[in-house]
């Protein structure tokens, strides 16, 4: 074969979490793997380059700014630190794969030629790769809402622009009060931007119970973030030096002048340019690649992993997708997406909001008789750590099945919540009851020992005997 025609056992399209883990594992097992990534700035995918890692590093740096530090200088320094970190991770990701004898990394956008062949590049530079198995791991990209003037605005920014630009926007409008919008609102406010969040729903964080979303909203508004729930952005109008956001709230029209507008209204699977139709690979009405519970597409030798398959958009889900695919390719072929129990999530505002399982609303709708336990962090006597680290804001809430004492769900808006939720997840997965979690021995002073108090702090029960 010439240099422009390769044959591999496995081709991976996209250097995301699931794809790279699958590539590394298969390479170690002696399979010939070709991984194709369209951008030399994206080795390792979204998470280490423009997603989880830089945003959480910015949470860290924004929290360290002292009142007398110049916002612009502090921000520029922070972006520099974050870029150094992401460069390091990017290089590490590239070397880890391309350094292996069995793995070749090609940089360029891949497209299907037929169901066993993908091509990269054009003309004399075109490389064609055929393979028995193909993994698609092309991730997701921001949805730009169809608001007049938004897509063409010179001040429209995405997570990628914000993370890389060293100029701190003086006034930032965030459209969307979900994970991305609230994390950026919290971060940029703490760096010194004047931040306004526009959310169409009656509340930000609409998936959470009202008491939890209200507590998160209160923390943000107390800090000085402006939140405009129940609003509709009608137009984004560029001026010479600034942009005007025109919006409606309670039937009245208002304007806000800003320096940047962040689109945070969701992310859609990336399938553009893949020429899926040439391979006979179907997509869903929402634009995701259609997969079964083993992540096989409509072509059984082609798998789709991570955000592109329309599943929950988290790095650890992409990682778990790779376990399912590897089990198909090298294991017993039993693992499926339906095996997942109690998948936690954390929104990294300050303090973080970590959630798992059913909300109170969902538990009631599902017909459970429930016991509710909830305490404000400031009132949790067993958790002096909150006072030690001077972060006593937030609350912890547990939704417990009154009949079985199993934990149905939890929402922890608290310092260290991103760690605490993993203990709750483990308990839920392994059938550890709420009482057992409450009565366990935890180190002191730690945040986990809050469970000793909170799970006993019953505020409501559906059990008639207890009323
Ligand atoms: C700002 C932000 C913060 C986030 N924070 C968190 C967090 O804290 N925790 C968490 O769990 N999740 C977080 N997420 C979500 C998480 O980043 C994603 O769910 C995860 O990265 C998806 O990984 P993936 O494997 O699907 O693919 P990705 O990591 O998105 O990788 C896909 C890769 O495919 C490449 N590609 C696309 N098309 C082609 C093509 N035709 N040819 C070749 N290559 C192609 C892309 O360039 C990209 O590198 C965050 C997301 C964002 C945007
Ligand atoms: N910490 C994390 O794990 C993390 C952080 C960032 C992003 N993510 C992932 O990325 C995904 C995408 O994040 P996201 O925040 O963009 O999406 P999202 O779905 O979480 O939130 C979008 C929000 O925008 C609102 N909205 C939609 N259209 C609107 C409009 N025209 N005007 C105003 N508001 C509007 C929705 O009601 C919703 O509240 C998340 O769902 C999450 O899976 C994860």
TrEMBL record:
<dbReference type="InterPro" id="IPR023753">
    <property type="entry name" value="FAD/NAD-binding_dom"/>
</dbReference>
<dbReference type="InterPro" id="IPR036188">
    <property type="entry name" value="FAD/NAD-bd_sf"/>
</dbReference>
<dbReference type="Pfam" id="PF07992">
    <property type="entry name" value="Pyr_redox_2"/>
</dbReference>
<dbReference type="Pfam" id="PF02852">
    <property type="entry name" value="Pyr_redox_dim"/>
</dbReference>
<keyword id="KW-0670">Pyruvate</keyword>
<comment type="similarity">
    <text>Belongs to the class-I pyridine nucleotide-disulfide oxidoreductase family.</text>
</comment>
<feature type="domain" description="Pyridine nucleotide-disulphide oxidoreductase dimerisation">
    <location>
        <begin position="343"/>
        <end position="453"/>
    </location>
</feature>
<protein>
    <submittedName>
        <fullName>Pyruvate/2-oxoglutarate dehydrogenase complex dihydrolipoamide dehydrogenase (E3) component</fullName>
    </submittedName>
</protein>
<keyword id="KW-0285">Flavoprotein</keyword>
<feature type="domain" description="FAD/NAD(P)-binding">
    <location>
        <begin position="9"/>
        <end position="317"/>
    </location>
</feature>
<dbReference type="InterPro" id="IPR004099">
    <property type="entry name" value="Pyr_nucl-diS_OxRdtase_dimer"/>
</dbReference>
<dbReference type="InterPro" id="IPR016156">
    <property type="entry name" value="FAD/NAD-linked_Rdtase_dimer_sf"/>
</dbReference>
<keyword id="KW-0274">FAD</keyword>
<dbReference type="InterPro" id="IPR001100">
    <property type="entry name" value="Pyr_nuc-diS_OxRdtase"/>
</dbReference>
